[in-house]
Fold:
Amino acid sequence: MHTTVNNKNDIVKLIDVTKCTACRGCQVACKQWKGLPGAKTKQTGTYQNPPDLSAQTLKLVRFSEGLKENGKPFWYFFSEQCRHCIEPPCVDTIAGYTPDGATKDNATGAVLFGPKSKEAPFEEVRTSCPYNIPRQDEKSKVLVKCNLCIDRITNNRVPSCVLSCPTEAMVFGERDAILDKAKKRVEFLKQTYPKAQALNADEVRVIYIVVDDPKKYHQYAVA
Ligand code: SF4
Ligand code: SF4
Ligand code: SF4
Structure:
C-alpha cells in the first residue's frame, strides 16, 4: 500500500512481523537514504547485526530465537525503529532542558530531534522512551533516531525503508485505512496464533503486528 497521503497528520506505518523475512533491506535502505555508514562488527552467535541501534543505525532488524511454552522453537524478526508516539515522552524530557531540542511536527506527527538535543542528558531521554530508541552521536553528542523520513513523506514519497520492503511487511498510509488493514490481519492471525495483536495502535504512528509476547522479539536488545 504505497499510497499518496492527503491528510499527512493522519499517517501511520504498519509493520507486520509475520511477513518479515529478515532480508534487512529496510536496514540498508535507511542507511542509504540517510547517508549513514556501516559498522564493523563480529559474529556473536546471532544474525542480529550490528548488535543494536546506534547513531549510525536508526533501523535494525532484531533476531530472537528460543522455545515456546509448548516446546516448539520460534525464530522471530522485528524491524525496530522509533514508534513516533502520539504523545512522545522523549520530547517532554528534552524540553525540560532545551525547548528547541525536539519537537512533534504539526503537519505529519513525526517526532524529530534537533541539534540542541545534545543539551539534554542522554540516559534520561533514553530511559524516558518506553521502547529504548534514542541514541547519541558520540562526537557531536546530539541525540538521534528515525525521523520517519520527513523529507520524503512531505514530498508524497513513502519512507525509504517501506519502499525497500519486498514482502510488504511494512506499509504506510492513512490511519483509518491502515488500522482497518491491521484489524483484519490480526483477526486472521488469531485463528492460528491466539496472542496476535497490533501493539499500542492508539498511542503510536508505527504500529507492529506480533503473534507472541512482545518481549520475545527483543532477546538481544541492549537495556
Ligand atoms: S518511540 Fe521513543 S524516541 Fe520514538 S517518539 Fe516514542 S518516546 Fe520518542
Ligand atoms: S522511516 Fe526513514 S529514517 Fe525511519 S527507519 Fe525508515 S528509512 Fe530510516
Ligand atoms: S525489508 Fe521488510 S522483509 Fe526485509 S527485513 Fe525489513 S521488514 Fe523484514
User: Anything to note?
Assistant: The chain has a mean pLDDT of 93. The helical segments are 25-34, 89-95, 122-128, 150-153, 160-164, 175-190. Residues 163 and 206 are 15 Å apart (CA to CA). The pocket of iron/sulfur cluster (ligand 1) is lined by residues 82-85, 88-90, 111, 129, 131, 133-134, 145 (CB under 6 Å).
